[in-house]
Amino acid sequence: VQLQASGGGLVQAGGSLRLSCAASGRTFSLLRMGWFRRAPGKEREFLTSISRTGEDTYYTSSVKGQFTISRNNSRKTVSLQMNSLKPDDTGVYYCNSKQGLTESWGQGTLVTVSS
After folding, report:
1. I need a labelling partner for 15 at 20 to 30 A (CA). Which of 22, 80, 83, 89 fits?
2. Which tens digits make up the pLDDT trace of 12-59?
3. Helix, strand, or coil (residue 39)
4. 3-class DSSP assignment, residue 95
5. Cα separations (Å) of 9 from 14, 16, 100, 108?
């Protein structure tokens, strides 16, 4: 599957951004989707994931209540709504898909939060 992330940019602390990831290639509704982040000088970390139907979502504790993941299977997109952004949220955000043992990554979109 090919993944294309978009929506990153520069935002002031306290602001919001909405990231999107468009998928092509495989049947999107069979994919579990997620978002990861690589902050400057740090390893890539898991942020959130969503089940194939969208009924179940999971968040790492640091973004729970601040970020919201959603998906639209008819449009083959997954989104990440990010609110109350902090400078620590700065990084490259990657969308991810999983189906069985097969995993794919998008190219990443840069989010910079200024203080």
Report:
1. 22
2. 999 999 999 999 977 899 999 999 999 999 999 999 999 999 999 999
3. coil
4. strand
5. 14, 10, 32, 12
